[in-house]
Amino acid sequence: MTTIQFILDPTQLTKKDLAIYSCFICRDISFDDYLYQCSKGHTACKGCWARHLRTKKTCMECIEKINSLENLSTNRKLRELLFKKKFKCPYHYSNIIKSDDSEPLTNTGDGCKEIIIGEKLKNHIENCEYRFVKCKNEKNGCNFNSRFKLYHSHEDLCLYKYIPCFYCKSLIVKNNEINHQVECESFPVECKLCQNQFEKREINDHLANNCLESLIPCPLEEFGCKEKEKRSKIQDHLNGNHNTIFIEQIKKIHQLQNEIYNQNQSIINQNETISRQGQEINNLKENIHIIKKDLENFKLNLPTTTNEQFPEINKIQKPEIHTNYYKNFSYKNTWIIENYSKITSTICNVSFDPFNFEINLNKREINGENVVELSVYYCKDFEINVNFSFILQNHKKITTLKERFNKDFTEKYFLKKTAYGWQKAFREAINKKNGWLTKDDTMVLEITFKCSSIVKPLFS
Ligand SMILES: [Zn+2]
Ligand SMILES: [Zn+2]
Ligand SMILES: [Zn+2]
Ligand SMILES: [Zn+2]
Ligand SMILES: [Zn+2]
Ligand SMILES: [Zn+2]
Ligand SMILES: [Zn+2]
């Protein structure tokens, strides 16, 4: 920041006049503003009044109270007198009393020699050819600081002015032109391969895609040709012999076609399987529906009752019966048949409600021989697994005959249209001699019967 203070040299003013026309404090004659005065005529420039009123609220000469500049009046008469006097231009060298040490003002000549009437002085000072100015390119680094007169010739020569780049047209500082050209994307460069000129921004694209002299891989590279050729000759290369490559590729195409065909077949098969399984699922759903209906019927048959009918001559233990109607049912008992030899028809008959189950032991005569028949039935309406076993006992041996059957077995040997059944005939004589009867003519038969429903809560 250059500050240059100067005194005005009012050639027509006496020392006494100066005392009247100048500020009481700073002794300057003000041309750009009025002088201000208190009611008693004590006069100072606007700046001096403002500085004074910051610390004291009175006139600087008398003790009149003054709160702000608004309490003061302008000295219009003094200003009018001043405007009619003549002055030397303050930019005359002899008028300059102070400058920064960095400003070598001695080289700038004596300066302005004009004498100007007071009312035009302000305008002259602002436009004087000898006023000091800085270069408008100061922020770019220009140190020019001299008389305005010299600025015209400097402006053209200034190394810090903006100029358009010759190549990219963007504005750059003249002094920086060489540095800019290193980076300028429009700066011309020569292709090292084909010696043609390009803007710098184009050269990479040129080399990658257009330069006829650059080496590029054969377009059939991914099919097996590993050769490289100049771009200008690549068409000749393509017209050359690639037969082995084509044969290899045709083989691969055939392989792929086969694979596609096989995969299509497998998709067709899978679709068939899916539709078949869909059908099976539908069938299963129908079965479940039927089973649910059966279960409803099954509930209607509750509760269970067991009937055991024995002739008077027989004894029977209390049977064990366990029932869970939707899952399983079991019956276990020991039949003790006394006076066996005297019985002629039904020995024992038991039936159970939940599965219409029946166990019968009958005695009848075939060809003069006594035959004992043991038979089991249950209703075909129920899908159940059955385990039936019996043990014929006497005093000496626990087990002499043991039979078991299950659903598979009874399907082979059903006896009635509405029931599965099984029958065993003991044609051998059952007598005391072979040990099947005790000495006091008693037969002991242990019966075990278990069945379980196959209904499962598939969709609960
Ligand atoms: Zn002043
Ligand atoms: Zn005063
Ligand atoms: Zn001047
Ligand atoms: Zn400059
Ligand atoms: Zn440029
Ligand atoms: Zn090139
Ligand atoms: Zn090739």
Automatic annotation (TrEMBL):
The residue stretches assigned to a coiled coil in this entry are 267-301
Q: Where exactly are the transmembrane stretches of this chain?
A: none
From the Swiss-Prot or TrEMBL record, what is one GO molecular function term?
zinc ion binding
Q: Which PROSITE patterns match?
A: ZF_TRAF (PS50145)
Q: One GO CC term of this entry? A: cytoplasm
Q: Where are the zinc fingers (TRAF-type)?
A: 180-235
**Subcellular localization(s) per the UniProt record:** Cytoplasm
Highest taxon in the source lineage = Eukaryota
The UniProt entry, under Pfam families, shows:
zf-TRAF (PF02176)
Per its database record, what is this protein's job?
Probable adapter protein and signal transducer that links members of the tumor necrosis factor receptor family to different signaling pathways by association with the receptor cytoplasmic domain and kinases.
The molecule here is called TRAF-type domain-containing protein
